[in-house]
Write a structure and sequence with these properties.
Layout: H1 16-20, H2 72-78, E1 81-98, E2 102-116, H3 117-121, E3 126-137, H4 140-145, E4 159-171, E5 176-183, H5 207-210, E6 224-234, E7 237-245, H6 259-262, E8 275-286, H7 287-291, E9 300-320, E10 335-354, E11 362-372, E12 379-390, E13 400-410, H8 412-424, E14 436-447, E15 450-460, E16 476-488
Antiparallel strand pairs: 1-2, 1-16, 2-3, 3-4, 4-5, 5-6, 6-7, 7-8, 8-9, 9-10, 10-11, 11-12, 12-13, 13-14, 14-15, 15-16
Organism: Gluconacetobacter aggeris
Family: Belongs to the OprB family.
Region (Disordered): 43-63
């Protein structure tokens, strides 16, 4: 089954699609299942629908800034090698509220190398993938805003690091695809195609995982040793599962040392934590053509249901290791630890309107919700939703406009712990209140290889409290302005 063309927002990098599926057999079908080049980006790039078979579009030297690089790219491709590079530059400013108004800069450069074993030495359906990141700049979220949801997925600790290193093998005409090595889970699991268009990090790997797992789990910019299997029993159904180490940087759950400082090179290859199991079922449907005829404009959708289970040890949110209250003045300060953790989730991406069959003018919705245990997780429930408008700007068919909202609800014991602290006078932060944020963004395809994305975000209950825990002063709602520039070389 040929995949329907991705949303027009992805065509802002029309030539980038040639890089997304660069290694093919003679009949044009993928010899293995290569990652999208956008898999090295945490957010801001919409993804094609998850379908078992992709057809490579025509090669377009204009899709990347360096083109054929003086003939180097075609020569490497004949030997099974593809190198992709992307550069991201962001400027952010806190206009009001938060902790301290003012601007910050962050940026990232990502390089990915893929080697097709069939072209390289005749071994069919094999793919070696290696990627690396150089992350720079400062954190507007941590230094100026004080929010629990980072304004950008690139708002991470500075480092130059290995990202992923794995070997993938296809079986049964690639109906089954297996990867083994150091794997990042958030590029395939828990992903919403439409949500990933937005820049706020919560629309990528949400609080339910980034705050509740060790170092945020195997998610950008970290990976963990493990294995991932993807099976396509029928065209519309994809079943995925993975087993990885649950602690990519080997650190304790609570630490004053940032995860990127504990493992600055990305080569810790930890096996010291628990084991993380994650599974997901994806169903792709065309709602319009199921209830009408083939002349009806296609309204494609992807619905996902998944969950994870972690065998590690996780801290209680209210009680210490002696059974007393963590907020008590005489507490040991060391939480009681519980064995194992779990989470369930659902994701829905659905196109709800198309101007005409084959039209690039579309409107799509997304909803994602998670739920887990409230005793050992700071965030027990989370929900995000939004809408994207593709091709609506006259003369700008490749551009996308989007608006999205999200919030995370605290677990019962985290709420009780905050109340304990207020009652016992051991904290100035006040009661916990779900932080909410809304994002309005516009993604403009300046050229096939250059994307400019101005962005506005507004936060309520910044940091999940009403007061700065250090000073006791009120924290105002935060208004953030920013711009993202992504270049594909």
């Amino acid at each position: 089954m040929k995949a329907e063309r991705p949303a027009p927002a992805l065509r802002r990098v029309a030539g980038l699609l040639a890089a997304l599926y660069p290694l093919t057999m003679g009949d044009g079908i993928l010899a293995a299942t290569p990652p999208l080049v956008t898999d090295v980006l945490p957010s801001g790039v919409p993804l094609p629908p998850p379908t078992p078979v992709e057809v490579q579009p025509p090669e377009d030297p204009g899709s990347e800034l360096l083109g054929e690089a003086g003939g180097a790219r075609p020569w490497l491709a004949r030997h099974g090698i593809r190198i992709n590079m992307q550069d991201v530059e962001e400027l952010w400013g806190l206009a009001s509220g938060g902790l301290h108004t003012g601007p910050t800069y962050d940026g990232m450069t990502a390089v990915t190398l893929m080697f097709d074993t069939e072209r390289g030495f005749g071994w069919p359906d094999g793919l070696l993938n290696v990627s690396a990141l150089q992350i720079r700049g400062r954190s507007l979220t941590g230094e100026r805003l004080g929010a629990v949801n980072a304004v950008s997925g690139y708002d991470a600790g500075r480092s130059t690091r290995l990202f992923e290193l794995w070997y993938g093998q296809g079986f049964f005409a690639n109906l089954l695809d297996v990867r083994v090595g150091s794997i990042d889970l958030d590029t395939e699991f828990l992903v919403s195609q439409n949500a990933s268009f937005f820049l706020n990090s919560s629309f990528g790997w949400p609080l339910s995982t980034s705050s509740n797992l060790y170092s945020g789990g195997p998610s950008w910019p970290f990976s963990a040793l493990g294995v991932r299997a993807k099976w396509t029993p029928i065209d519309q159904l994809v079943l995925m599962g993975a087993v990885t180490d649950d602690n990519p940087t080997r650190g304790p759950f609570y630490s004053a040392i940032a995860p990127t400082q504990r493992d600055p090179s990305g080569t810790a290859f930890s096996t010291s934590g628990g084991t993380l199991f994650i599974g997901e079922a994806q169903l792709s449907i065309d709602v319009a053509r199921r209830i009408a005829d083939q002349a009806t404009p296609s309204l494609s959708g992807t619905w996902k249901l998944g969950g994870l289970y972690d065998t590690g040890r996780f801290p209680d949110q209210r009680y210490d290791d002696h059974g007393g209250l963590l907020a008590a003045p005489d507490s040991t300060g060391q939480p009681r630890y519980h064995r194992d953790n779990w989470m369930i989730y659902m994701v829905a991406d659905q196109m709800i309107w198309r101007a005409a069959p084959g039209s690039s003018k579309t409107i799509s919705l997304f909803v994602r919700a998670t739920a887990n245990d409230g005793s050992r997780n700071r965030f027990s429930t989370e929900i995000q939703g939004g809408v994207t408008f593709d091709g609506m700007v006259p003369g700008r068919t490749d551009d996308t406009i989007g608006i999205a909202w999200g919030t995370g609800f605290y677990g019962s014991r985290a709420i009780d712990n905050a109340r304990d602290a207020m009652r016992l006078g051991t904290s100035l932060a006040g009661a916990l209140k779900p932080e909410q944020h809304i994002e309005v963004t516009y993604q403009a395809a300046v050229t096939p290889y250059l994307i400019i994305q101005p962005d506005f975000q507004y936060f309520w209950h910044v940091g999940g409290t009403s007061f700065d825990p250090q000073t006791g002063r009120p924290i105002g709602n935060g208004a953030v302005l920013g711009v993202n520039m992504t270049t594909t070389f």
